[in-house]
Specification:
single chain; 2 strands
Length: 223
């Protein structure tokens, strides 16, 4: 990381000196994840409707809310990966990673648990692409932008692993194979953001992964 982070500001609480940005980010991010889990604001009459509704709600939870906090701190969004960054390296890593992962994703999407879970949404392929993009754009900024670059202030490159922990926990309830893989996938997404100084490239890779898994699972269920 070559960019200079925002000047450190601290709170002294009960004899402890806490970085303000890190403290706020940890508390707010935890609350946002729990609010997303427990609440459904937009109406949804079916599982497909729920997928659409949650995608829209997550634009607020994981994109707008963190951006408001960044502006409140009077920081630049670019300091949190909201920029193109090293686009040449980013696109190269995304393309290579997608090619390597594709066969494994295809096989995993055809397992009974993955097929049963992802085939519940009755969506046309174009809708799968759009809904996944809306859902994951904020999701990736939240983990690979806001959390990653805030935690890096005190944890350095360990932030790559730290941000992957709540990311993995947020997958509880999904098929076991997918959930177990997310600590590794989330760490790799964090690595992509770290190397490129941007959340855009983990977003692109996550979007490709999600779309491939959903489309293959739906095709497998259809026979």
């Amino acid at each position: 990381m070559t960019a200079t982070p925002p000047a450190k500001q601290t709170w002294r609480i009960a004899g402890l000196e806490l970085d303000r940005r890190v403290t706020v980010a940890i508390i707010i991010s935890t609350l946002l994840l729990m609010l997303d889990y427990y609440n459904q604001v937009l109406p949804a009459g079916s599982f497909t409707g729920l997928v659409r509704a949650k995608a829209i709600e997550r634009v607020f939870y994981y994109l707008l809310a963190p951006l408001l906090i960044i502006f409140w701190f009077r920081d630049r969004p670019a300091d949190y990966g909201f920029q193109w960054g090293d686009w040449r390296r980013g696109l190269l890593l995304v393309g290579a990673s997608a090619l390597v992962a594709a066969p494994f994703l295809y096989l995993s999407a055809r397992t009974p648990a993955m097929t049963a879970y992802y085939s519940r949404a009755e969506q046309a392929p174009l809708e799968v692409l759009i809904v996944a993009a809306v859902d994951l754009f904020g999701w990736e900024f939240f983990f690979r932008g806001f959390l990653l670059f805030t935690l890096a202030r005190v944890a350095g490159p360990h932030a790559i692993l730290l941000q992957a922990v709540p990311f993995a926990m947020a997958h509880l309830g999904k098929p076991q194979l997918e959930t177990l893989s997310t600590i590794f996938g989330g760490s790799y997404f964090g690595y992509l953001a770290w190397r490129t100084r941007s959340f855009v490239y983990p977003f692109l890779l996550h979007w490709l992964v999600n779309v491939l898994v959903v489309l293959v699972a739906m095709a497998s269920a259809a026979g």
